[in-house]
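Can anyone check this?
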Amino acid sequence: MEIQEREVVLEAKDLCKYYGGVKANDDVNIKLYKDEVLAIVGDNGAGKSTFIKIVSGMIQKTSGEIYINGKKVEINNPIDARKCGIETVYQDGGIIPLFNASRNLFLGREKVQNNILGKLLRILDFKYMKKETIKALANIGINLKDSDTPISSLSGGERQTVVVGRAVYWGGKILIFDEPTNNLGVKQEKIVMDTIKKIKNELKISIIIISHNINHVMELADRIIVLLNGKVVGERVKGDTSHNEIVSLITGINIVKSDA
């Protein structure tokens, strides 16, 4: 199917964010299509983080518009973003190391026992949360050896998948991954990348990835958008581009193509 015919689930129109005279995002226009992985790349200070912070409600835009499934929305905080089905997955973001996987998956949304005492005294239903956590992680292909162990004892890749599982479990239809493989070893990178592929292929969730790792971008993304100095300077379908072309767009320097 031609990309123009596909359903747009998120669209930013003329999105701007100014800090005094600094234009962190300058008339950024980006579309995310249904069931795709979109990578947004660029050097430090290109505007990637500013864009995802606006869409995820961490900061407010200076001007521009955001549309979800064709409907204009106002995203002023993370709660607004979640109501739009947007969940952002940061590296080890929003977890408490001493809590186990289920306490972290239900962090801030704990399930109390469904009886008078449970509701009155807010007695947590640990059995229910454990069962749901095991199911949620299995849904994205993760089976922890011991779901009761503190999350601090898990590998970096496993901790990241708990955060991903939480985003999916709580209804994320658009997932934003901020440097998902940063500071991970090769084995742990593969766990996270396989999880992203499974979510895209089996759960039909639209994904935005922010990454400096162009090799990972070329493996995961369907489409790549390049930011430079707060502006979109390139958009490529993965099959029609190369590693060197993307690096050239990021740096603004022509690189002799050697990709076979």
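Reply from J.R.: I decoded it. The beta strands are 8-19, 22-33, 37-41, 63-68, 71-73, 86-90, 174-178, 206-210, 223-228, 231-237.
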